[in-house]
Amino acid sequence: MRQGTQYAKKLKKAYPKLKRPRPPEAEFEPTDPVEQLILAVLGQETTLSRARKALQRVNEEMVDYNELRVSSPAEIAQVIEDYVPRAVSRAKVLTRALNAVFANECTLSLNSLKSQGLRDAKHYLERLDGTTPYVVASVMLWSLGGHAIPVSDVTLEFLSKQDLVHPAADCAEVQSFLERHVSAAEARAFSLDLEAGAASRPPALPTSKKAKVAKSARTTTKKSKPRTTGAKKKAKSKAKTKTKAKTKAKTKAKTKAKTKTKTKAKKKPKAKTGKRTTKKTQKGKR
Asked: Which residues span the domain enclosing 191?
């Protein structure tokens, strides 16, 4: 990696901040190589916690890993799409890797690697179809106890944002850089701390087609509701102003009518009294 010495100094200063408190490590218990391979393929483009959730869904939906091997990418994608981005392409890589293991071993097992040397086991994994440097390093570290530090796309992005690696470096370059500056005794703890740091700033969760449709429906309804309510409020205010104007006009008309009737009523009695007085006066004259 370019400017390796400069970034090595930065990494040395930043590593104490990356450390997470954890209980003292118990005796190392290696994981199953095939299961670790599946977990690594699922976690290539996402965090380790999401990859574990996707693997849990696989174990819930599939009878065993042989069923996973013979399933179509579309079927696998439906199982893992809530946790893994680009689920169909990840499913294709996964079936390729599992079928490559089955073709070499005549069974879905990598236990034969435990009896080989670490260098031979690494070459074997590198030749498998569908494996990447991250997948190889993950199996080497957690299943075979080798000196490796897996760097996924998410951890690479995290290290690049923290300015701990060169921005143009890829996963393989960063892995070899870290393995040169982190000892074998610290490799597992460093990998866990690195995964935890990357998980603290994870990328956006993938959304399935159903979730996308539901989300778009919710957003459209949310957006449309204020508009309709605003329009209704305007219409209501207009209607209120119209009704107010009508009521004002009616009250004015009523008041005018009342005043007219009052004036008429006042005038009529005067006329009657006048007539009566004239009649009385006429009678008096007679």
From this structure: 4-199
Are 173 and 43 part of one and the same domain?
A: yes
Structure tokens, 46: 């996402």
Q: 252: number of CA atoms within 13 Å, CB side?
A: 6
What's the number of domains the chain is made of? 2
Give the distance from CA 253 to its chain's centroid. 65
Q: What share of the chain is helix, strand, coil (3-state, %, to 5)?
A: 70, 0, 30
Asked whether residue 181 is domain-assigned, the answer is yes
The pair of three-digit structure tokens given for residue 70, joined into one six-digit string: 């013979």
Q: Are 188 and 28 in contact (CB under 8 A)?
A: yes
Contact 14, 197 (CB under 8 A): no
Calpha distance 177→69 (Å, rounded): 34
- Asked whether residue 211 is domain-assigned, the answer is no
Residue 252 lies in a domain: no
Tokens of 107: 């069974």
pLDDT tens column, 183-213: 999 999 999 999 988 887 655 555 555 555 5
Is residue 175 domain-shared with residue 282, that is, in the same domain? no
Residue pLDDT, tens place only, 119-145: 999 999 999 999 999 999 999 999 999
pTM above 0.85, yes or no: no
**Residue 204 belongs to some domain of the structure:** no
Q: Which residue has the tokens 């990328």?
A: 203
Assess whether 187 and 269 both reside in one domain: no
How far are the Cα atoms of 50, 85, 113, 149, 177 from residue 140, in angstroms, in the given order?
Answer: 21, 25, 10, 9, 17
